[in-house]
Every structure is written in C-alpha cells, then in structure tokens.
Amino acid sequence: MGNNPATGPLTGVKTRDEARTKEPSLYRVLLHNDDFTTMDFVVQILVQVFQRSAAEATQLMLDVHHKGVGTAGVYTYDIAMSKVIQAHQLAEEHRFPLRCTVEKA
What's the confidence (pLDDT) of residue 20? Predict the structure, then answer.
C-alpha cells in the first residue's frame, strides 16, 4: 500500500459506494395487434406466459386491440427474451402470427 499525505495510509478497502452492484437494465415486452390472432389466444398467452390474472389479461388484450400495441410486462433482458420465445412458440403451435418485441424500459 502507500501513504497519502492528506488522509494517511492507503488501506485498499472499498467504501460502501464503490461496493454497490449496478441494478440490471429492464426491458418492456410489447404485444402487437394483428388481424388474425384471436383475442382469446392473446388472453391465454398473457395468463400462461406473462402470469397476468384473467381480468388483467383481458384489459391488456383490449388495449392492444384498440391501440395497436401494449406492454405485457417489464423484465430483465434474459427473462424478457425467454418470455418472447415462449409466446412465439405457442403462437406458432396454434398457427397464429402473434408478434412480441422487446425494448429497453
């Protein structure tokens, strides 16, 4: 170590501010309206993949239907991408063109 004339010996100990970890960035998962995916299927995705209640899922589905896009949830990047993949896989299995995208919150 060394000696700092202004403050005394340098100890190499981190202060509390230096030791803080940075919070991970958050990302919005957006659902996009289309003319083919049924409203019931969108509600199913919101309940099954995004853990929304039936009432929340119905309201969000209606928002997406009327506004063209809506936020399904806000997550860390890995979780957001995992949910998008799940939703797209289920949509493909049911032959719906449901589209989800991710954007930084």
Answer: 79
pLDDT for res 15? 59
- Residue 42's CB: how many other CB atoms inside 10 A? 26
The three-state secondary structure class of 19 is helix
pLDDT tens for each residue of 71-87: 999 999 999 999 999 99
pLDDT value at 2 more than 60: no
Any idea where the domains of the chain sit in the sequence?
35-105
The C-alpha angle with vertex 95 and arms to 94 and 100, in degrees rounded to 5, equals 90
Q: Strands, E, within 1-98: which ranges?
A: 3-4, 8-9, 26-32, 69-76
**Which two three-digit tokens encode residue 64?**
């997406």
Q: Which residues contact 36 (CB under 8 A, 6 or more apart)?
A: 96, 97
What residues contact 41, with CB distance under 8 A and at least 6 apart? Answer: 91, 94, 96, 98
Is the CATH number 3.40.50.720 carried by domain 35-105? no
